[in-house]
Amino acid sequence: MLLILHPDTRTTSPEYQKTVEYLSTLKGITYRVHEIQGVQQKLTEVYLLGETQKLDKETIESLPAVERVIRISDEYRVLGRHHDERRTTGFEYQGLRFDQNSFHLFAGLCAVDTPEHVELMMKTLQANGQVCTRMGAYKPRTSPYAFQGHGKTCLPYVFDLAGKYGIKVIAMEITHESHIDEIHETLEKAGRPTGVMLQVGTRNTQNFELLKAIGRQKTYPVLLKRGFGISLNESLNAAEYLASEGNSHVVFCLRGMKTDAGLPHRNLVDFAHVPVVKRLTRMPVCVDPSHSVGNHERAPDGVLEVLHAAAQGVIAGANMVLIDFHPHPAKALVDGPQALTLPDLPTFIEDMMLCRNTYLARQALHNRNSHA
Ligand code: PEP
Ligand code: MN
After folding, report:
1. Number of domains in the chain
2. How many Å lie between the centroid of ligand 2 and the Cα of residue 20?
């Protein structure tokens, strides 16, 4: 059961105190409080856990701090949709809005290699009006002998250059909870020139201790990749781990499923699930066509296969695209073959805007017809 409190309820107010006092008397029921800072007001949600079926909705609704009560299913308690369209969704970060209606492009390096490549990438992003990027410092690799990423040593120049070129948010994978502190300390030391969206990679989707650690902090939003070999339900529950620990600022990213059925692509593109994730949860949905398709092949129609896949996701309503670029793919230390080059950037952006506008036109068309 979910209790939505009156907006801007303070935990020191007598109404709040009376409400939690009553909740504490309920046998076999525990509660968790989630605070959501919206643009104009603070919303407090209280989740009742345990045998909530026996509780009377009206009695709970009559408690002084409670505005309304929603009976929710066990699935995706915090992030789920629960047929309650009125609950706020999404979040603000670094002056940008992330929700199921927003749209952002995160083009950048799969892995940071040299300061020169980072600078070239960011300079080109700025020249093309972009304020978000991806930069991998901690790389989870199949082979222990492969390049593992520069780790914390590259963070100072990555963050400084981001500030120099007006980059507001960097999607950056972390593979251990200690990386949160490394990122935080470096950002603080540099005077917070940019922001970071902590990325959980597909190999760590069910690394529950990592999820809990990331969920316990609220400074950084999270980009959670779908696990490449597990069900969608399992991956959505992984997102719920973050939220159940307190951080519901989560973007869910589809990146293809590992199966030979996807060959010759690296993974089987799963972007038909964009609207499914939007229906089951209130998370914004990202697509990563680079790790899905995994090549730089051009179809006979002249369009890169990776962009055909990206288009599928965006035209189906994706809210974000995460995509690999590199100034010199042949010199990239990770995933060079799937990287787009800097001259590809303006075309990529224009293509994605075409798809986004087509999605908006499709949405308008279908809403017009269904309401006729
Ligand atoms: C990545 O985005 O760099 C990455 C390793 O992706 P994934 O976890 O989806 O393989
Ligand atoms: Mn990669």
Report:
1. 2
2. 47
